[in-house]
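Following up on my earlier thread - several people asked me to post the actual chain instead of describing it. Fair enough. Here it is, all 204 residues.
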Amino acid sequence: MAGRLLAIASAVSAPALGFYLPGVAPIEYQDGNRVDLKVNKLTSVKTQLPYAYYSLPYCKPNEGIQDSVENLGEILEGDLIENSPYEIFMRVNETCKVLCNQNLTPEHKDKFQSMINDEYLVNWIIDNLPGATRYVRRTGVVGGQTTFMNGFPVGIVRSGRYYIHNHVKIDLKYHQSPDDPDQYSVVGFEVEPYSMTQAVRESS
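Reply from S.P.:
Thanks for posting it. Predicted structure:
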């Protein structure tokens, strides 16, 4: 496992058709408005024991960690929703952008390894929509069968080596308001996680 946690993100937005759940009021955005990405608890179907997102040494927001529960349903579900340092803006595509770069202690590595072994998932939220990971299962059908999973794994194990997902591609789908062409709502939120050994050069 690498000795550093280098978080890098890229964000892409694309138009899409949308629908809304009853009782959920979508937020309307204009071009360039900030879209808040919030983090939820880390979960595992293997252990059924949730952990706070920041129990792992993930990048923290400069303004400090703040509770961000928005509705009664999130409270009843026992969600632990907090703010994040990700900066995403409506209809503004971003290429690779370093979020933070920090060294991992032996204790941090052990915690990540334990979380990966227990198949923990990272859960993010934008406008009450959970971040979903797309998987394509190889079947007899041309192109395979596409499925989605809420959240994405903390990391993976390959040939006995542990890899932290330290790079994400964020794909937001948006819907243009039929009443105001300058207003947009988020209707889809996908995350593609990666593990990268070196994403930026060392500063000299």
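The first helix runs from residue 72 to 76. That should answer part of your original question.
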